[in-house]
């Protein structure tokens, strides 16, 4: 029998303890061990019941990720689950920690389920572009009803033990050591002469309006197909006998295994875990961070302060004037009130954070004891240098000095201090206490332990941290500027901003680029265009029609008018009729005859521009790996997760086809569509961006 399963007998009950640390993933050895242990229990004279329990932190956290992408090995999980369910012995799952994916499917194949109050259960397969494939779509609705099963499977979100009990997934919730709890429950069931109770033999769930449910789930997923396919699998549980329902589930599961979306989501899953694993930081200890300073209490500074407070750090926030300091305190308190309302913190914790852990001051001397300070002031180099001169004077030796700049040269900021080795860029995304991305911008003289500290802070704040080099816009904003320019060019050439926004939302983005510009503020782009104007290449095409709107004081949502017009109190807008007039005027000035674009043309140009600039960013070393770009775009810019990121999208399309399109676009605009050298090299060598990721991991 496998060494992953410990077999013990307590009277007429056999205990099968899964021992595959840290979270008892369902490796081949675990599956084989469970199979063999069930055989042993059934042949062990006098055994009447089996308790399955997990060692360590979890019952079973799910599949073994090291087996992803490899040929499946027997015993396959669906067959194992059917084998457990068919046992003549009474089988109990005693659950603690998490029971996710295949772990919950194993539990559903037992006859009775008991769990700790802190346990959580879930079916997250849709987050990998799949559906549960070992019977959960057929068993779960027989316990919960079809509607609740659809909600749980299509969301992928885990639920707590109490909710699982209410839904009928669990039979009992009891505190105690899991094995002891499971044994006591099994003894009680045997004393009651309870019989095995296969879920497969329970009545099928009542049907829903399946087509309407499918359409609603597909719309909610913004093009992700696996949740909608899960609806069809649950539908089979209502309409087909159990065995045929299992066949349908397997058929749908295998179809999803072959999809591009499954490739993209598996890539995102692994890249999310690899992105902060940098060879350069192996063996490098970070500096301690107990107290954090923040300069500037606007939306960004308040968000950074909120995130640090929620991570258990003390925060000193500096503002220029008393009224601004009071407003910053109110802003942070409002953010924390949101966490209180959502149950993330208690009232006692809220009071402690706002009254004790947070200090708001107008005096830089208050920063004397902080371990790291983040500057989050106006995006102007002279202003930032003035701030860093003050920080250089008041912060203790070893304090990390960080700038939250979105575009500016961190090397130049560092050079304005007497300690450039302590300076780093920490580019948060607004609202900083909610958005997951953190670009850790490493300047030429940044010390390795300061880089490690940036990543340690990101981890403490729950961020996806990406290493970036110094250039205008770093990784994300540099690429954003390029694909946004591609959209601007399409507008000048005949596509409307509203067609472009719709085409990209249909592709999977949460918002189109023009709606995003309104949300961020049109003044940001206006200011950037003015900043870059003195150094602009004469062949660069830069639309100016939107600047005229900015000159009138219209900056998007915050002023009620931009590409869209916003009614008071509403975030969604309607197209602004002025925009078409301004575009037409500029087209006439430039002698452009507008031409039609299909939605497919729009998406292809937008994506090719994104990939081409991203390849330049990787080729120059600004991003170390293509996956760094993918995670930046996924977590900071609303890129659809099911494509895995722009580099994975390009691999799926074929780099040769992407390059061919770029070269065809270059015939009309050779300056903008200069193919990235790295892209040309990869195509010539028949390699992919993912090959570079693998090379970096060796």
From TrEMBL:
Keywords (A to Z) from UniProt: Fatty acid metabolism, Isomerase, Lipid degradation, Lipid metabolism, Lyase, Multifunctional enzyme, NAD, Oxidoreductase, Peroxisome
Enzyme class: oxidoreductase
Example GO molecular function: isomerase activity
Highest taxon, organism lineage: Bacteria
Localisation per UniProt entry: Peroxisome
EC number, UniProt record: 1.1.1.35
Residues in 3-hydroxyacyl-CoA dehydrogenase NAD binding domain copies: 292-468
A matching Pfam family: 3HCDH_N
Keyword ATP-binding: no
Catalytic activity: a (3S)-3-hydroxyacyl-CoA + NAD(+) = a 3-oxoacyl-CoA + NADH + H(+)
InterPro entries reported in the protein's UniProt record: 3-OHacyl-CoA_DH_NAD-bd, 3HC_DH_C, 6-PGluconate_DH-like_C_sf, ClpP/crotonase-like_dom_sf, Enoyl-CoA_hyd/isom_CS, Enoyl-CoA_hydra/iso, NAD(P)-bd_dom_sf
GO process terms (BP): fatty acid beta-oxidation
Pathway: Lipid metabolism; fatty acid beta-oxidation
Domain 3-hydroxyacyl-CoA dehydrogenase C-terminal positions: 473-566, 602-687
Family listed: Belongs to the enoyl-CoA hydratase/isomerase family.
Protein name stated in the entry: 3-hydroxyacyl-CoA dehydrogenase
Species of provenance: Sulfitobacter noctilucicola
């Amino acid at each position: 029998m496998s060494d992953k399963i410990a077999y013990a007998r307590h009277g007429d009950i056999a205990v099968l303890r899964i021992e595959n640390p840290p979270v008892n993933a369902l490796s081949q050895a675990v599956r084989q061990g469970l199979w063999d242990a069930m055989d042993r229990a059934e042949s062990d004279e006098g055994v009447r019941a089996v308790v399955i329990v997990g060692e360590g932190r979890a019952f079973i956290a799910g599949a073994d990720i090291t087996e992803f992408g490899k040929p499946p090995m027997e015993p396959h999980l669906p067959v194992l689950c059917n084998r457990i369910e068919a046992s003549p012995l009474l089988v109990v799952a005693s659950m603690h920690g998490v029971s996710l994916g295949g772990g919950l499917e194993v539990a559903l194949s037992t006859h009775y389920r008991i769990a700790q109050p802190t346990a959580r259960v879930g079916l997250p397969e849709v987050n990998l572009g799949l559906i549960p494939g070992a019977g959960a779509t057929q068993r779960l609705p027989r316990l919960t009803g079809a509607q609740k099963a659809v909600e749980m499977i299509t969301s992928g979100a885990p639920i707590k033990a109490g909710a699982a009990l209410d839904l009928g997934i669990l039979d009992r919730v009891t505190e105690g050591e899991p094995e002891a709890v499971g044994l006591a429950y099994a003894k009680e069931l045997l004393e009651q002469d309870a019989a095995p109770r296969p879920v497969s033999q329970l009545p099928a769930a009542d049907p829903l309006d399946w087509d309407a449910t499918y359409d609603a789930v597909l719309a909610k997923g913004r093009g992700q197909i696996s949740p909608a396919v899960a609806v069809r699998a649950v539908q089979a549980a209502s309409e087909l006998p159990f065995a045929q329902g299992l066949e349908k589930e397997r058929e749908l599961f295998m179809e999803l295994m072959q999809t591009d979306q499954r490739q993209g989501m598996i890539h995102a899953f692994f890249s999310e875990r690899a992105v902060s694993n940098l060879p350069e930081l192996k063996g490098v200890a970070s500096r301690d961070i107990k107290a954090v300073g923040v300069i500037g209490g606007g939306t960004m500074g308040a968000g950074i302060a909120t995130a640090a407070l929620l991570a258990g750090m003390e925060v000193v926030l500096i503002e220029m004037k008393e009224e601004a300091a009071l407003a910053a305190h109110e802003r942070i308190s409002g953010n924390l009130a949101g966490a209180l309302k959502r149950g993330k913190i208690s009232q006692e914790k809220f009071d402690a954070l706002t009254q004790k852990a947070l200090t708001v001051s107008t005096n830089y001397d208050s920063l004397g004891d902080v371990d790291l300070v983040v500057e989050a002031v106006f995006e102007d180099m002279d202003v930032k240098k003035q701030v860093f001169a003050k920080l250089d004077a008041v912060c203790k030796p070893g304090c990390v000095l960080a700038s939250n700049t979105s575009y500016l040269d961190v090397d130049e900021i560092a050079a304005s201090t007497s300690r450039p080795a302590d300076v780093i860029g920490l580019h948060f995304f607004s609202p900083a206490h909610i958005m997951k991305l953190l670009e850790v911008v490493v300047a030429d003289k940044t010390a390795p332990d300061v880089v490690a500290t940036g990543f340690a802070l990101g981890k403490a704040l729950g961020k996806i941290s990406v290493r970036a080099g110094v250039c205008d816009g770093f990784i994300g904003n540099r690429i954003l500027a390029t694909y946004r320019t591609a959209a601007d060019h399409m507008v000048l050439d005949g596509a409307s901003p509203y067609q472009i926004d719709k085409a990209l939302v249909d592709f999977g983005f949460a918002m189109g680029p023009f709606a995003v510009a309104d949300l961020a503020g049109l003044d940001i782009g206006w200011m950037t265009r003015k900043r870059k104007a003195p150094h602009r290449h004469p062949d660069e095409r830069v639309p100016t029609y939107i600047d005229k709107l900015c000159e009138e004081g219209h900056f998007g949502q915050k002023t009620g008018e931009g590409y869209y017009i916003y009614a008071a109190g509403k975030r969604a807008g309607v197209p602004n009729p002025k925009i078409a007039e301004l575009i037409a005027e500029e087209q006439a000035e430039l002698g452009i005859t507008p031409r039609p674009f299909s939605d497919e043309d729009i998406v292809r140009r937008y994506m090719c521009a994104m990939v081409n600039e991203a390849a330049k960013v990787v080729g120059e070393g600004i991003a170390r790996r293509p996956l760094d770009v993918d995670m930046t775009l996924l977590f900071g810019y609303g890129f659809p997760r099911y494509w895995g990121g722009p580099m994975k999208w390009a691999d799926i399309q074929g780099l040769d086809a992407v390059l061919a399109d770029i070269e065809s676009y270059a015939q009309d605009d050779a300056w903008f569509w200069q193919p990235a050298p790295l892209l040309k090299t990869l195509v010539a060598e028949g390699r992919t961006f993912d090959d570079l990721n693998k090379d970096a991991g060796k």
